[in-house]
């Protein structure tokens, strides 16, 4: 069951990500370059 939940969560996040790109454009793409998708990097400044 856990792998299914991870898969569904990943697909949802990709859908939301594409909606954010439509809404915010290049600004959100620059944000995506700096920030990881799920787990934040420790010890680095954004």
How large, in whole angstroms, is the Cα Rg? 13 Å
Number of strands: 0
The 3D shape can be described as flat
Portion of residues in helices? 55-70%
Largest sheet: none
Average pLDDT reading: 92
Number of helices: 2
Distance between the termini: 34 Å
Low-confidence stretches: none
Q: Give the structural class.
A: mainly alpha
Element-level helix/strand string: HH
Strand content: under 5%
Structure explained in plain terms:
Helix content is 70%, strand content 0%. With 46 residues, it is mainly alpha-helical. The longest helix has 23 residues, at 2-24.
In a nutshell, what does this entry contain?
The protein has 46 residues and is mainly alpha-helical. 70% of the residues lie in helices and 0% in strands.
What does the secondary structure layout of this molecule look like, with pairings?
Elements: H1 2-24, H2 26-34
Give short descriptive properties of this protein:
single chain; 46 residues; mainly alpha
């Amino acid at each position: 069951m856990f792998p299914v939940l991870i898969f569904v969560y990943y697909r949802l996040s990709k859908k939301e990500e594409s909606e954010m790109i439509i809404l915010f454009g290049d600004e959100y793409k620059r944000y995506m370059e700096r920030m990881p998708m799920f787990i934040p990097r420790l010890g680095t400044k954004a």
